[in-house]
C-alpha cells in the first residue's frame, strides 16, 4: 500500500480524486491551503485510490496520511 502524505501543515481545500480512481505518478490528489496559498499534493506513484483519509476543511500536519493507494 502506498500513502500520499501532507508535505506541510494546512487545511484541506479540495480533494481531486474519489475512492476507486486510477491515479498516475505526479497527479494532484489533494490541494492544501496554507498562508493563503494553494499547495497541490501529488501522488508519488501510480495506483488506485483505496481510501481518502481526510475531508475538505480538515487541518492536517506535515506527514499526515491524506490518501492511500493500492
From TrEMBL:
It comes from the Bacteria. It is an enzyme of class 6 (ligase). Coiled coil: none annotated. PROSITE patterns: BIOTINYL_LIPOYL. InterPro entries: Biotin_Carboxyl_Carrier/Decarb, Biotin_lipoyl, Single_hybrid_motif. The keyword Ligase applies. The keyword Ligase applies. Gene3D superfamilies: 2.40.50.100. Its EC number is 6.4.1.2. Keywords: Biotin, Ligase. GO terms for molecular function: acetyl-CoA carboxylase activity. Residues 1-70 form the Lipoyl-binding domain. NCBIfam families: PRK05889.1, PRK08225.1. This is Acetyl-CoA carboxylase biotin carboxyl carrier protein subunit. The lineage of its organism: Bacteria, Bacillati, Bacillota, Bacilli, Bacillales.
